[in-house]
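User: Could you check the structure of this?
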Amino acid sequence: MKIYINRKPKHGPWGGGAKTVNKLVKVLKDRGHEITYRLESGIDKIFCFDPRPNECGENIYHFLDYKKNNSTKIIQRVGDIGTHSKPDLTSLVKMCVNKVDHLIFPSNWAKETIDFSGDNYDIIFNAPMVEFYKNRDLKTSLGGKPTVITHHWSYNKKKASKHMRN
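Assistant: Sure, the predicted structure tokens are below.
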């Protein structure tokens, strides 16, 4: 199967979306699928990690046109929903979710924040790779009680909020 992914793998501190892209590409290649990062003929599935333009200038509107002309399925991972001063992104994400075939959310909070009520979705929580924990004693290395630090806004006390916690 030929699969288009609208973000290329990145290595280093690029966040949960990049970790997801990296893992997805590895798993798909290991299973014998062909991966492309440009819209070209013969694509069976489109994975959209961000509806905004990629380095090729391709965005959600290009994917929707491709789908209409080729009966290709679009799977969208809804990561950044624009809640931190990006109202244009929030509007774009809300428009997309009703036009794609399947959605992947990183949390219930993200799904609820954009008021999604369909049934064509899964929630796949981000988690550190096994290598992060390998050969580490976190309580010792962090001086006692481990602390969770994240860049995501959420009402979930296990993630973060707009207010400092003790």
